[in-house]
Amino acid sequence: MNRMLNRKSVRxxxxxxxxxxxxxFLSDVAKTxxxxxxxxxxxxxLDPKEHGLKSPVLNxxxxxxAAKVRRVPHFEEAYGYSFESVVIRAWERGIGTVWIGxxxxxxxxxxxxxxxxxxxxxxxxxxxxxxxxxxxxxTVMRKGVRADxxxxxxxxxxxxxxxxxxxxASAEKYGEALEAVRWAPSAVNKQPWRIVVSGDTVCFYEKPxxxxxxxxxxxxxxxxxxxxxxxxxxxxxxxGGSCILxxxxxxxxxxxxxxFVAAFQVR
Length: 267
Ligand SMILES: Cc1cc2nc3c(=O)[nH]c(=O)nc-3n(C[C@H](O)[C@H](O)[C@H](O)COP(=O)(O)O)c2cc1C
Hints:
Layout: H1 20-31, E1 41-46, H2 48-51, E2 64-70, H3 75-92, H4 106-113, E3 119-120, E4 124-126, H5 136-144, H6 153-156, E5 157-159, H7 168-182, E6 193-198, E7 201-206, E8 213-214, E9 218-219, H8 220-238, E10 243-245, E11 259-266
Helix pairs in contact: 3-8, 7-8
């Protein structure tokens, strides 16, 4: 089974430190993480005790991985894409993570990574081993955001224009990759990604909600779309295909509030 489909956020850890091998593995994955825009995303491990790092939603965490990026065009989608590549590789190795963009003492994290004026550190994640049982708080939180629920394919993916159902041919060709997109994580499980397929071009849009753009994070929902794009590209490449970022914005009728993020040529 595709491991992207059964990934879950982990907020309850068993209190063990990462083994040296696992830390070296993650360090390597983080150092070599790439995104289609070629924007460097800079990861570092942080010891919670040394820097006074806290997140009220977590239990048993012993180490964090934080990432910062320069505030350049496309930084949000690039950040989401690179960070999620690390999240998925960690999950495949049995290491738990959860994207944290809000519930943390942000100032301490930003000081710990030595954030410069032109940089942002939108999110962090604990890295560790999942406990056998979720804390009560985590269980309640998951219910609150309906974390095990996703929109149906017909609500997020369309053919040639927004609202027109996918053709049988596209559903067949892109079905697995779009399923991987559906199960991507997003802030408050809002799933703001929308996709329009037109021949071999696949366009990604953000359908924004209010309250997700802040100076300290950029547009969190654009980060969500970057995460979704990683899931898509990874699933296509696992199936032997490839995705190339198109330089131009395709002329596709969509609602005015949708924001174009990127389009891929799929081979
Ligand atoms: C950009 C981003 C920011 C997030 N910020 C937080 C956060 O601050 N606190 C938290 O508990 N979960 C946070 N999450 C986790 C989401 O709530 C979670 O991914 C979603 O509910 C779906 O659950 P799942 O990841 O288990 O599929 C964030 C997720 C993303 C992608």
